[in-house]
Amino acid sequence: MPKKNLNNSTTSESTLEVVNLVVLLLGVVLVLLPLGIVFLTSFAPEGATLALIPQNGWSLTNYQDAWQRGKFLLAFANSTLVALAVTAFQIISSALAGYALARLKFQGQQVVLLIVLATLVIPFQLLVIPIFLVLKWGHLINTYGALIFPTAVNGFGIFLLRQYFLTIPIELEEAAALDGANRWQILWRVMLPLSRPALVTLFLFTFIGEWNDLFKPLVFTTRPELRTVQLALAEFQEQFTNNWPLLMAAVAIATIPVVILFLFGQRQFIRGIATTGIKN
């Protein structure tokens, strides 16, 4: 009888594993199918039908034409500058505010935390008019500041690092304090190195979000020299609506850097978890 129950349990576990595998494979297909269509279409000549292997072979002509006609070099430089600047501001501000909310005790701490959480449910589009007025008052419209400062601080980053700091044993800070370290040294030399997974996560979320942002460049800038990748892609789409291979090549150009960054960041994220200090 026990042997029969053991066989039934083994069969149930095998069936569950097969079901999980099928579900995961379906999820992979649903995610990769649109990307596959984009890349296959980008290699086809204009007017050609979609095929796994193009009749005339693989060609980078669409990519060359899209790069030149869309003037993506300047857009790439602008998007990279804005994304890196916003990411740096958010990591610094989130680390400082998150550490204060996690470790320092002060009057109104819970109120401040609730305000930070409240900002997460307020859409950025709802604040666009007051932000525009502030930028106009500061003479920042049509400057890089208009693309950087509105999202330089983010409640998600503050809450993320605050929660991660809470998982780090306070004994590590006490040991550093006994060695003569002050609050700044504890934060930069103890807490942040141990928070590498959270920092990588915040970096990826912020950089990819800024890279894919169309709203700020569209509302706060009109100068062509401030065009970002998404704004250049939107203008490119208006010009070449009927040329799908060329349009898909432009989409691939805008997507490839983010995909590469995410794959690299994912590896760093796993490595950061493996080398993280003791957790409660």
From TrEMBL:
<feature type="transmembrane region" description="Helical">
    <location>
        <begin position="244"/>
        <end position="264"/>
    </location>
</feature>
<feature type="transmembrane region" description="Helical">
    <location>
        <begin position="141"/>
        <end position="165"/>
    </location>
</feature>
<dbReference type="InterPro" id="IPR000515">
    <property type="entry name" value="MetI-like"/>
</dbReference>
<keyword id="KW-0472">Membrane</keyword>
<keyword id="KW-0812">Transmembrane</keyword>
<feature type="domain" description="ABC transmembrane type-1">
    <location>
        <begin position="76"/>
        <end position="265"/>
    </location>
</feature>
<feature type="transmembrane region" description="Helical">
    <location>
        <begin position="111"/>
        <end position="135"/>
    </location>
</feature>
<keyword id="KW-0813">Transport</keyword>
<keyword id="KW-1133">Transmembrane helix</keyword>
<feature type="transmembrane region" description="Helical">
    <location>
        <begin position="186"/>
        <end position="208"/>
    </location>
</feature>
<dbReference type="Pfam" id="PF00528">
    <property type="entry name" value="BPD_transp_1"/>
</dbReference>
<keyword id="KW-1003">Cell membrane</keyword>
<dbReference type="InterPro" id="IPR035906">
    <property type="entry name" value="MetI-like_sf"/>
</dbReference>
<feature type="transmembrane region" description="Helical">
    <location>
        <begin position="72"/>
        <end position="99"/>
    </location>
</feature>
<comment type="similarity">
    <text>Belongs to the binding-protein-dependent transport system permease family.</text>
</comment>
<protein>
    <submittedName>
        <fullName>Carbohydrate ABC transporter permease</fullName>
    </submittedName>
</protein>
<feature type="transmembrane region" description="Helical">
    <location>
        <begin position="21"/>
        <end position="44"/>
    </location>
</feature>
